[in-house]
TrEMBL record:
InterPro entries: HTH_MarR-typ, MarR/SlyA-like, Tscrpt_reg_MarR-type_CS, WH-like_DNA-bd_sf, WH_DNA-bd_sf. Residues 21-120 form the HTH marR-type domain. It holds the Pfam family MarR_2. It comes from Roseibaca calidilacus. This is Transcriptional regulator.
Amino acid sequence: MTYPPSNDLADLLVHLARLAQNAANSPLTAAQWTALRYFARANTFSRTPSAFSEFHATTRGTASQTVKALVDMGLLTRKAHAHDRRSAVMEVTAEGHAMLAHDPLGGLRQVLADLPQDDRDSLARSVRRAVTQLAAQRGAPTFGTCSDCDHCEPGGAQAYCHCTQTLLATPDMAAFCVDFRPANAAES
């Protein structure tokens, strides 16, 4: 049987992801690294175990166990949510930020940075499109940053989020958001 090139590409992407996530002698599992990275990059509205479970495409129970392990290691702290007392907001500790300096994805980031700019841009567009289409097929959320979100209305020093009905500071513009909607989604 001959496999279509898309099978080879899918297998290559899975293999690349596994290579990038597996580091010898790492104190964290791949899921724990993903969680630590997520909470370091997520905006305030998205730093909850529930939002992480959506991002990681896992159950809330599994996400909760991953978060608990990171809290127990002192890499995350749990704070009461300002607007929803039933929920908690996760914060990366100084120890967590220090751990991120040894992130196994650093090797992949360097390999990608070494690609010619045109190749990187093309790869980024293709992977974003694939993520968006697969998420739509599976009914899963598509994560992205506020700067690329249809809910965001840029405006000078601050932007406005129509979803959360709040002003966004500059650091929020580069943060992951659980309520992200691709800028072209309204036209689709």
